[in-house]
């Protein structure tokens, strides 16, 4: 999401200031950047490229190999689609705005871009919330897990994760609810030609931040804290049992419980990355209306890209934590993925 405070054109006040449209009255002041445009283009372009390629590889891996068709991976597939769409459609336009300091693509595209940004960011944390709930069932209710988490359950989770954020993101922006109650301030101090600011009134900023970030984040923290207690107890029990087993038994193959614990830890790391990357931005979002939108727009732009960076690092987390992703990556990059019946390959033989 891009939250900025653009000032209107006032030639008496800004004699040495550049504007988006010098010949138009009511033009936005061009945002000055703390480093060169070339650096911005290089950094943002690199982030976009890595985001698109990395998430595309995860999508191919899960979609192609039948061994990976599990409830957790279906949710990861949908989450990764969020990250891919962010890299394809939202980040390039944000990069253009960051580099130019203005928005030159018209009001409708600005609203569409802003709505997509809000939608995908909110959908990501909704997915993570449902993934944490699925992990909770796997750890707390292993015997009834397959009764609780079915394909229809996963479909329902994915549908909710996309539908509610889409209704919120596009509904709020295209209906003007984002500045309801603060119209005078918005039209006087924010709206200008060449700007694409996401403006939230104080009440809506609180509602959006808590609904899209703080409440789901708190739920996930509680779930993972509960899972940690159970997993710690399981590890102690396994260590005690291992001391009583023969050496050959200890070197046996990993149990499903071990896989569940590793999968839970990986998702917890993904959630931690999301929390670290997006928390500063959402804190600015909720604070800014109550300090008369005085936070530096350049700072908010940087925090926005720090949030985007979360979509870039997720594939690397999967590559480090999941042996199946590393095995799938070998097959994809070698071109063997195009061979017949490769979807049935047991990835453990390539680890």
Your description of this structure?
By secondary structure, the protein is mostly helical. The chain has a single domain (37-245, 269-350), classed as Rhodopsin 7-helix transmembrane proteins (Rhopdopsin 7-helix transmembrane proteins). It contains 11 helices and no strands. α2 packs antiparallel against α3 (107-140). Keywords: Cell membrane, Disulfide bond, G-protein coupled receptor, Glycoprotein, Membrane, Receptor, Transducer, Transmembrane, Transmembrane helix. It comes from Chanos chanos. The chain crosses the membrane at residues 40-62, 74-95, 152-173, 213-231, 267-291, 303-324.
Cα Rg:
23 Å
Q: H/E order of the elements?
A: HHHHHHHHHHH
CATH superfamily label: Rhodopsin 7-helix transmembrane proteins
What's the N-to-C terminus distance?
A: 38 Å
Tell me the major beta sheet.
none
Q: In total, how many domains does the architecture comprise?
A: 1
* Average pLDDT metric: 82
Helix proportion: 55-70%
Query: Which blocks of ≥5 consecutive residues have pLDDT under 50?
Result: 4-15, 247-256
User: Helix/strand-derived class?
Assistant: mainly alpha
What would the CATH topology be? Answer: Rhopdopsin 7-helix transmembrane proteins
In DSSP terms (H or I, runs of 4 or more residues), the helix count works out at 11
CATH architecture label name: Up-down Bundle
Inertia-based shape: globular
Number of strands: 0
What is the top-level CATH class? Mainly Alpha
Percent of residues in beta strands: under 5%
């Amino acid at each position: 999401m891009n939250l900025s405070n653009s000032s209107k054109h006032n030639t008496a006040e800004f004699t040495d200031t550049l504007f988006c449209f010098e010949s138009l009255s009511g033009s936005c002041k061009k945002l000055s950047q703390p480093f060169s445009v070339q650096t911005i283009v290089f950094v943002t372009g690199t982030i976009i490229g890595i985001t698109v390629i990395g998430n595309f590889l995860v999508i191919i891996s899960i979609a192609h190999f039948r061994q990976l068709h599990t409830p957790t991976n279906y949710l990861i597939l949908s989450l990764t689609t969020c990250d891919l769409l962010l890299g394809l459609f939202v980040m390039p336009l944000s990069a253009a705005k960051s580099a130019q300091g203005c928005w030159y693509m018209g009001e409708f595209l600005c609203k569409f871009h802003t709505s997509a940004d809000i939608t995908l960011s909110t959908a990501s944390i909704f997915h993570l919330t449902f993934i944490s709930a699925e992990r909770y069932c796997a750890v707390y209710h292993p015997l009834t897990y397959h009764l609780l988490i079915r394909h229809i359950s996963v479909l329902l989770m994915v549908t909710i994760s996309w539908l509610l954020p889409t209704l919120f993101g596009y509904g709020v922006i295209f209906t003007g609810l984002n500045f309801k109650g603060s119209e005078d301030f918005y039209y006087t101090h924010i709206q200008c030609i060449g700007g694409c600011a996401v403006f939230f009134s104080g009440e809506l900023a609180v509602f959006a931040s808590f609904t899209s970030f703080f409440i789901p984040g708190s739920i996930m923290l509680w779930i993972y804290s509960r899972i940690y207690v159970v997993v710690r107890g399981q590890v102690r029990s396994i260590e005690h049992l291992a001391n009583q087993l023969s050496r050959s038994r200890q070197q046996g193959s990993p149990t499903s419980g071990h896989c569940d614990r590793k999968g839970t830890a990986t998702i917890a790391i993904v959630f931690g990355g999301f929390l670290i990357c997006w928390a500063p931005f959402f804190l600015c979002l909720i604070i800014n209306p109550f300090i008369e939108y005085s936070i530096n727009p350049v700072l908010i732009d940087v925090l926005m890209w720090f949030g985007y960076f979360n979509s870039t690092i997720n594939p690397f987390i999967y590559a480090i934590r999941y042996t199946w992703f590393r095995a799938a990556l070998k097959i994809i990059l070698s071109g063997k993925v195009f061979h017949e019946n490769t979807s049935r390959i047991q990835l453990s033989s390539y680890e």
